[in-house]
């Protein structure tokens, strides 16, 4: 008897594999989410979760899609998985005895191959983009803070935080950073937290962010880290971000992931919603 395939465990195992090798998948140096891993046919980028799961940047497609393009997968090549949500409508009886339709999201997957595994198809030419990363980053912050009327403050300080009570983001002054890009990493982390306010995506309580070390705190922190990393890469910003104790940092996430195989899927999904909210998409 074979064990039933568990997509959540498969995803978690892939993230754990990367962490154990010393690679932090949500800090993956994408060249922008929109020019990271994408589908060859639709030209659309994969979701943040899939960007973390896939091993390469560039073009992916299913076996059938590559075949339709005139290519064939080299013998011995192994596929990777891409996950997506499929909404199932299910009729249920509510507490009042009335029939209603619930929309239930089911996580599904399919297999894909990278262009490097394919013969008979030439890679697409990569378009040149004229990025002005710092100007664009400032515009993202200004537009979001103005639109949402967030109390945003840059000040000489060694603290960075989001207060849900005050709906306020406080970050150290740009003058305090050796690498200005690290300032934006900090700012986007805290701004991602702010999307969780009850008037926005309602992830966090207006009383306080969950207690340090709790499951809720860990998930919200990962949402903010993925959100910050994806915004930086979307804007073409690279940082010199390092962790004071990478081993301890990685071990802390390994423990969380091992205890909850739906953790990374949930956090990545929430981060993607947060990024889109900040960008007004």
Write up what this structure looks like:
With 281 residues, the protein is an alpha/beta fold. It has two domains: 31-119, no CATH class; 133-279. The chain has helices at 7-20, 48-53, 63-68, 133-148, 180-194, 215-234, 246-259, 263-279, and strands at residues 37-39, 58-61, 72-73, 80-93, 99-114, 118-119, 151-155, 161-163, 168-172. It has a four-stranded mixed β-sheet with strand order 1-2-5-4. The chain has a three-stranded mixed β-sheet with strand order 7-9-8, with helices on one face. The relative contact order is 0.15.
* Structural Rg: 21 Å
Principal-axis shape: globular
Give the spatial strand order of the biggest sheet. 1-2-5-4
Spans with pLDDT under 50 lasting ≥5 residues? none
The number of E-state strands comes to 9
Query: What is the assembly state of the chains in this entry?
Result: single chain
> Hey, roughly how much beta strand do the residues contain?
15-25%
What's the main sheet like? Answer: 4 strands, mixed
Average pLDDT score: 88
Helical region count? Answer: 8
Helix/strand class: alpha/beta
Question: How many domains, as an integer?
Answer: 2
Query: Helix coverage percent of residues?
Result: 25-40%
Q: Give the SSE string.
A: HEHEHEEEEHEEEHHHH
Terminus-to-terminus distance:
47 Å
């Amino acid at each position: 008897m074979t064990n039933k395939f568990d997509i959540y465990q498969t995803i978690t195992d892939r993230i754990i594999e990367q962490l154990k090798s010393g690679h932090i998948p949500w800090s993956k140096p994408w060249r922008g989410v929109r020019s990271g891993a994408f589908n060859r046919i639709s030209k659309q980028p994969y979701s943040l979760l899939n960007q973390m799961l896939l091993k390469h940047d560039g073009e992916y497609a299913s076996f059938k899609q590559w075949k339709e393009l005139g290519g064939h997968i080299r013998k011995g090549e192994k596929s990777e998985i891409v996950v997506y949500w499929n909404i199932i409508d299910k009729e249920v009886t509510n507490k009042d005895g009335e029939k209603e339709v619930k929309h239930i999201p089911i996580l599904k997957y399919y297999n894909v191959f990278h262009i490097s595994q394919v013969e008979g198809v030439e890679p697409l030419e990569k378009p040149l983009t004229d990025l002005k990363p710092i100007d664009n980053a400032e515009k993202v912050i200004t537009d979001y803070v103005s639109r949402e009327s967030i109390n945003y403050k840059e000040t000489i300080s060694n603290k960075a935080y989001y207060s849900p009570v005050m709906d306020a983001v406080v970050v150290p002054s740009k003058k305090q950073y050796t690498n200005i890009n690290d300032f934006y990493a900090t700012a986007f982390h805290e701004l991602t937290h702010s999307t969780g306010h009850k008037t926005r995506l309602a992830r966090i309580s207006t009383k306080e962010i969950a207690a340090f070390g709790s499951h809720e705190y860990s998930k919200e922190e990962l949402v903010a880290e993925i959100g910050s990393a994806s915004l930086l890469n979307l804007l073409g910003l690279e940082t010199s971000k390092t962790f004071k104790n990478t081993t301890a940092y990685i071990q802390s996430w390994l423990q969380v992931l091992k205890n909850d195989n739906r953790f990374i899927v949930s956090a990545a999904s929430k981060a993607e919603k947060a990024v889109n909210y900040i960008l007004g998409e």
